[in-house]
Structures are given as structure tokens and as C-alpha cells.
Amino acid sequence: MDAIEQVESAVRRAAAQVGPAVVGVGPRPGSGSTGVVVGEGRVLTNAHNVTGREMTVTFADGRSATAQLAAADVDGDIAVLTVDTGAAPGVVWSETATAVGTAVIALANPGGRGLRTTFGLVSATEQAFSGPRGRRITGSIEHTAPLARGSSGGPLLDVAGRFVGLNTNRLRGGFYLALPAHADLRDRVDALGRGQAPRRVRLGLALAPPEVARRLRESVGLAARDGLLVRGVEDNSPADRAGLRRGDLLVEAAGQPVSTSQALFTVLDGLDATDALSLTIVRGNEEIAVSVPFTATREEGSA
């Protein structure tokens, strides 16, 4: 068997063996993105695909069922749904890491509209991108298997059909990033399946990036400053109770400049629910020191 025949055989085998585990995930049948069965009664997808506590899962045989959100890690962009998976098999997790040049097969079932199967190579590892709320997600696999819109949440496989990554983020140029299916991801998925979402301190702010902050301040005649502009404050959040307002410019957190959202998240990740965070904000042209006490909350909202 020559190389082309081996590729054809691997792709067909993946579609036949793993295809039944690849499902559509959306608000209703025929719309949405992709998920993958990871065990009896459990479907893994990206958190950015989940639009509510209930979702519709469409299986390869055309059956649709209502799924419940078990838990989501929004900053890690993964979520687990509980649903009657019927005869759909769970994927087999790989025990080895992928390397540049590894041949991979990507599967998707966008909104349950039918299985797509493509072939590519791992083009890079240890890549990073911004998650749904701006936190930096590192360690991703970049690959060349082309994927249609709605493919996020589908599995990336090696040529033996083992689960090596969760397709998550489309890049310009047609490449895709996948979260590697290593032991850490498996542990996180197991915890989400038990309803255990990560608990992190959070401010309860919606923030605009520095370039937007500078442009808006200059447009109303205020001095340009590097920082994160407060676009919204969640009611009864730590930020709200501390008196932060829409239009404030956040310039320091715990004495550190916060010219990027990741800089702020780095500070927040070093805190727990017993800490208070010192902030420096600019309101108009006035610099104000604010202390924000925390209580840990579930993964909801933004920063």
C-alpha cells in the first residue's frame, strides 16, 4: 500500500469508527457547532459554543436530544454537557503528545448537518490565543486540516483514530488551533462532568482594550493614558460594590500596570477570595485608589 492509500485508509477508518461520536451542538437541530462524546452521557465542546443551560445535541444517526450544561470553564473554553448518548461511542484518548509533522485527522458535524472529515499535519505546538473573556490560553496545537465554520468543539485525531485535541480556534490562513488532549485536559473534563467548574476571583467588569481607551479619551478631550476602559459593571459585583463606574480607566492592579487584559488576569489569578485588590483608576483626569474585596464566584461574566 502506497502513502496515498494509507492516508485514504486512515481517514475512512476515522470517519467510520469515530464519526458516530461527533455530534452537532446548538440551540436547535441544524444550527450551531460541534461536540464529541467523551463517555456515556457526556459530550465535550467549547464553552463559546454554549448559549444556555440547555442545548440540543444532534447525533450522527439523526437523533436529537436535549442536553444540560454540567459545567463550563469559560476561560479555558471547554464545557461538558450531560445527555443521553445512546449507542454513540466515546472517543479513545491518546496517551502520547503530538509533535510538529504529526499527521492528524479532523472531524466535525456543524449543527448536526453531517460529518466532515479532513486531513492535515501538525504545523506548530505550544501556541497561544485569547479565550472568550480575554484570558490567554497556551499550549495549543496548530494544524493544517481545513475545517468549515461550526467545526469548533470537534475532535482532532491521530491516524490511529485516537483523540489528540479539541478543535477550538480558527486562524487566518485556514489553520486551526486545538486544545491538546493531554492528562490535564482529561482531568478538567472529568471535573466539569461532575459539575465542578473552576472558581476564580473576578471583578465583574466588561473592559475595552487600550487602543479603544486612548481613542475614546482623546475624542472627549481627555489626556491619553494606557489602561483598560470600563465598558460595563455587573450589578452587585465586587467592582460595583467598590464603586467602579462605566468610563473609568483601570491603570494599575496590585501596583502593576495593566495595559493589557492578560496583565489584569495574571494579577487576579494570584488572588483568592480572602484577598482585597488595590486598583488605581483614572476618572476623567483624576487618579483614584480603590480597594476591591472579593468573594469567589462561579465562571460567569467577564473580568
Low-confidence stretches are 296-301
CATH class of the largest domain: Mainly Beta
Oligomer: single chain
Give the structural class.
alpha+beta
Report the span from N to C terminus.
54 Å
Please tell me what the overall shape is. Answer: elongated
Count of domains: 2
Q: Tell me the number of strands.
A: 18
Q: In which order are the strands of the major sheet placed?
A: 1-2-3-6-5-4
As a percent range, the share of strand residues is: 35-45%
CATH topology value of the largest domain: Thrombin, subunit H
Indicate the mean pLDDT.
91
Helix content: 10-25%
Give the topology, please:
Layout: H1 3-18, E1 22-26, E2 33-39, E3 42-45, E4 54-58, E5 64-73, E6 78-82, E7 103-108, E8 116-130, E9 136-143, E10 155-158, E11 163-170, E12 176-180, H2 183-193, E13 205-208, H3 210-219, E14 228-233, H4 238-241, E15 249-253, E16 256-257, H5 261-269, E17 276-283, E18 286-293
Antiparallel strand pairs: 1-2, 1-4, 2-3, 3-6, 4-5, 5-6, 7-8, 7-10, 8-9, 9-12, 10-11, 11-12, 13-14, 14-15, 15-16, 15-17, 17-18
Written account of the structure:
The protein has 303 residues and is α+β, with helices and mostly antiparallel strands. It has two domains: 3-193, Thrombin, subunit H, CATH 2.40.10; 205-293, Roll (Pdz3 Domain), CATH 2.30.42.10. It contains five helices and 18 strands. The chain has helices at residues 3-18, 183-193, 210-219, 238-241, 261-269; strands at residues 22-26, 33-39, 42-45, 54-58, 64-73, 78-82, 103-108, 116-130, 136-143, 155-158, 163-170, 176-180, 205-208, 228-233, 249-253, 256-257, 276-283, 286-293. Strands 1-2-3-6-5-4 form a six-stranded antiparallel beta barrel. A hairpin with a 2-residue loop joins strand 2 (33-39) and strand 3 (42-45). The longest helix is centred in the N-terminal third of the chain and has 16 residues, at 3-18. The radius of gyration is 22 Å and the shape is elongated. It starts with a helix and ends in a 10-residue tail after the last strand.
